[in-house]
Specification:
Elements lengths: L12 H8 L2 H22 L2 H4 L3 H30 L10 H31 L10 H18 L3 E8 L2 H8 L1 H18 L5 E4 L4 E7 L3 H17 L3 E2 L2 E2 L7 E8 L12 H17 L5 E3 L1
Helix pairs in contact: 1-4, 2-4, 4-5, 7-8, 8-9
Length: 294
């Protein structure tokens, strides 16, 4: 397992760059571009300049979705009419009708493609069994957390956990029961983590959680809350209802404090993961259903 401490694979290309533009700036940029093109169109009446309307329409469709693309197309259509006064009397040529139709089509298609890209990105970054982050997505988010902690000196913690005796469940009740046990643990984990925590399933029944701005005491409390919730669950696995206490987890926790007074001194994600993973093995050795602090 590689836990990167750099920002590789974070950009996502032009589409991701457009999506990251803050809404006020994106609105101002698309509006300014539409009016700048209107000035050119009004001054020249030249077809090449009229085609430039597509750029802010597509930009708005990507950034704001279908409503943004449609709104930009409406504004472009109005400006196109104002820049070409003959159109105000509805004396359209065939090329004018085509241009207006393409304004609307460009905005809606850009929004549709942006929505499809967003859904595909979500699928590519999500673990299909639990709905948590997959390893690729986790590495990107961990790089951001590590960088922020390095710059601010804030503490951050990492928890590594797995499902106790999952092999016994697989052997006795089948792999479907085992998969549903892992899914349930993932859902419990997601429900009990703080909003800024990032959780990932990186193995069959193994999970890792990064918790920014989190002290050792808080991380330990969170891990124990998850442990208790899993043990108290009444799972239904492969159509069979099991009593509370059927499932349990073991967890290891490591923390990098802001002042280096406790936990792991190295700020890297690799160091925290190794420390938390070693603590997990200790929790297993001490009888499972247990949380151990590195």
């Amino acid at each position: 397992m590689r836990l990167t401490s750099t920002g590789r694979n974070e950009s996502g290309g032009l589409y991701a760059a457009v999506r990251r533009v803050p809404e006020p700036w994106a609105l101002a940029a698309s509006t300014a571009a539409l009016f700048a093109i209107f000035r050119l169109d009004h001054a020249t009446g030249s077809t090449p300049f009229q085609h430039l309307y597509y750029l802010p329409i597509i930009f708005a469709g990507i950034r704001f979705g279908a409503r943004g693309g449609a709104a930009a197309a409406v504004v472009a259509t109005m400006l196109y009419h104002l820049a070409n006064p003959a159109l105000l009397t509805y004396r359209y040529e065939q090329s004018d009708a085509i241009v207006i139709a393409l304004f609307v089509t460009a905005g809606l298609m850009a929004a549709k493609l942006a929505g499809d890209a967003e859904r595909l990105r979500g699928l590519a970054m999500t673990d299909d069994l639990t709905g948590l982050h997959n390893l690729r997505s986790f590495e990107v988010e961990l790089a951001r957390i590590v960088r922020a902690a390095s710059e601010s000196g804030a503490p951050f913690a990492m928890m590594v956990l797995d499902v106790d005796r999952l092999k016994a469940i697989n052997d006795r009740h089948g792999h479907l029961a085992g998969a549903e046990a892992v899914r349930l643990v993932g859902h419990i984990l997601a429900a009990r983590l703080p909003p800024d925590a990032i959780a990932c399933r990186y193995g069959g029944d193994e999970f890792v959680v990064a918790m920014p701005d989190c002290t050792m005491a808080r991380a330990n409390a969170i891990a124990d809350t998850v442990r208790r919730a899993v043990h108290a669950a009444v799972p239904e696995l492969a159509g069979i209802r099991f009593p509370a206490g059927t499932l349990s987890i073991s967890a290891g926790v490591a923390c990098r404090s802001g002042d280096g007074a406790d936990g792991v001194l190295d700020v890297s994600g690799e160091a925290l993961f190794r420390a938390a993973d070693m603590a997990l093995y200790r929790a297993k050795a001490e009888g499972r259903n247990h949380v151990v602090i590195a």
